[in-house]
Write a structure and sequence with these properties.
The chain is an all-alpha fold. It is built from 10 helices and no strands.
């Protein structure tokens, strides 16, 4: 029995998106050509043009899929953190998830969050994504810790800055001192807790002793 035409078309489109993300991982955005994607997906150039219109449409579809996967993994990490009653362990789970997600999706983050400024549509997709994730992070910190809006926003920017740094640079480009994922996530958790917890009170300006 032959598969319905729509199912075959969706399967072909999925293979093309899979191939696009693999090529991004292996060779960066320059490796993603119509011919390379069609060859890797076992389909034809014409099929790609029919499904996505052109390379730009393909990249937008790949961006939507990649950012959707990151967002889903982030949501799952928050669900696990919500089940943890200890605040420090909960933030530790989130920090470890952030380091893991940033590492595994590094190529997609570089291509779709940092390198897509030339496309209005791609920029809008990436901005909407970061706003949704950022709102989720700041809302969770506010509900869990009673964090002030500015403190929660600072913690989100700390997390996002780590992601952008991992997307743009190799670890040895950032610092001569290597930091493993476990150590990085533990330190990140402590930094986030220091920002959002209220016990220390406001930072007072240093008095000039001169």
């Amino acid at each position: 029995m032959r598969a319905p035409r729509q199912s075959r078309s969706e399967s072909s489109a999925e293979r093309m998106l899979d191939a696009t993300l693999r090529l991004l991982e292996d060779g960066g955005e320059g490796a993603v050509t119509v011919a390379a994607v069609a060859r890797a997906a076992g389909t034809s150039n014409g099929s790609l043009y029919h499904r996505f219109g052109d390379r730009h449409g393909l990249m937008l579809a790949a961006q939507t899929r990649a950012l959707g996967a990151i967002e889903a993994e982030t949501g799952a990490a928050f669900a696990r953190a919500d089940e943890e009653v200890d605040d420090e362990r909960a933030v530790g789970l989130l920090a470890a998830a952030a380091v893991d997600i940033f590492g595994r999706h590094r190529a997609a983050m570089r291509a779709f969050l940092v390198g897509r400024a030339g496309s209005v549509e791609a920029e809008a997709l990436s901005t909407a994504f970061t706003h949704r994730v950022g709102s989720g992070v700041t809302r969770w910190l506010g509900e869990r810790f009673g964090a002030r809006a500015g403190d929660a926003e600072a913690a989100w920017r700390l997390l996002f800055g780590l992601g952008a740094t991992r997307a743009l640079f190799e670890d040895e480009q950032v610092s001569p001192a290597p930091v493993g994922p476990a150590e990085l996530s533990a330190s990140l958790a402590r930094a986030v807790l220091a920002v959002v917890r209220q016990e220390a009170g406001p930072v007072r300006p240093t008095r000039d002793r001169g």
